[in-house]
């Protein structure tokens, strides 16, 4: 990661309680080349957190500036 460009659609649909076990899942939603930085690209992620019952307790969309693979 070169830089975090921002987070949107941040939600906490269910509460988290002391003693809960939370795990996260990250999904890549979109990838595009940077117009101004040829060695980097912009990736859109969906981050989700789930409790031990499988209920979604938090979610957000994040964009990050990432290094590209060498050609």
Total strands: the figure is 4
Chain-averaged pLDDT:
96
Distance between the termini: 18 Å
Helix/strand order, N-terminal first? EEEE
Strand content: over 45%
- Measured on Cα atoms, how large is the radius of gyration? 15 Å
Strand order of the largest sheet: 1-4-3-2
The best one-word shape is: elongated
Overall description:
With 71 residues, this protein is mostly beta strands. The chain has a 4-stranded antiparallel sheet, with no helix packed on it. The model has no long low-confidence stretch (mean pLDDT 96). Helices cover 0% and strands 61% of the residues.
Summarize, please:
The protein has 71 residues and is mainly beta. The protein has no helices and four strands.
Question: Which descriptors apply to this entry?
Answer:
single chain; 71 residues; mainly beta; 4 strands
Blueprint of the fold:
Elements: E1 3-11, E2 23-33, E3 40-50, E4 56-67
């Amino acid at each position: 990661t070169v830089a975090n460009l921002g987070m949107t659609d941040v939600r906490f649909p269910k509460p988290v309680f002391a003693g809960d076990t939370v795990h996260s899942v990250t999904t890549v939603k979109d990838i595009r080349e940077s117009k101004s930085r040829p060695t980097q690209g912009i990736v859109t992620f969906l981050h989700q957190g789930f409790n031990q019952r499988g209920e979604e307790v938090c979610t957000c969309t994040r964009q990050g500036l990432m290094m590209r693979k060498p050609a």
